[in-house]
Design goal:
It is built from 5 helices and 5 strands. The chain is of the alpha+beta class and 168 residues long. The protein has a 5-stranded mixed sheet, with helices on both faces. A hairpin with a 2-residue loop joins strand 1 and strand 2. Helix 2 packs across helix 5.
């Protein structure tokens, strides 16, 4: 069954007719031609498809497009302000935080969401005091909070310092 939906992707509104089983990832990539989110595992295990969905990290391969009618979707392509890269995009380049680059858009979008979560005081599994309200993003915190984003090339040694630099 097909349904008409509207998605706001990277600041632009798109009207689509999609099958009710269409994932947000497939709507973005196949219907809108957005090459930022990647289909890695298609099971929500690798994080390559991470987008910000109404400001929060989401795995677009697990989200049905019809469930997010009117939602604000931000991909890595939407983080830049024109030609001005987002601070995390610049930090990833400066720290050589990628090799093949396949996971990089998901890593960067996830890091943007993670920084917002930390700023809001959301505790993680490694938080010493979950009631503290303040989060210090040391290597251990960053590694835990980014653990849903896998890198086949193992560029983690450069990803964490890139995120840490922006977090400061």
């Amino acid at each position: 069954m097909d349904v008409d939906i509207t998605l706001r992707v990277d600041g632009a509104e798109h009207r689509l007719t999609v099958d009710t089983r269409t994932t947000l990832l497939d709507a973005l990539c196949e219907r809108l031609g957005n090459t930022s989110p990647k289909k890695g595992c298609d099971h929500g295990q690798c994080g390559a498809c991470t987008v910000l969905l109404d400001g929060e990290r989401a795995l677009s391969c697990l989200a049905l497009a019809v469930a997010h009618q009117g939602a604000e979707v931000v991909t890595a392509a939407g983080l830049a302000d024109g030609e001005e890269l987002h601070p995390l995009q610049r930090a990833f380049i400066e720290h050589d935080a990628f090799q093949c680059g396949y996971c990089t858009p998901g890593q960067i979008v996830s890091a943007v969401g993670m920084l917002a979560e930390a700023d809001s005081g959301w505790p993680s599994a490694v938080a010493e005091d979950i009631t503290a309200g303040k989060v210090t993003l040391d290597d251990r915190e960053i590694a835990e909070r980014m653990s849903g984003n896998l890198c086949r090339c193992a560029a983690y040694v450069n990803i964490r310092p890139a995120i840490s630099e922006v977090a400061r």
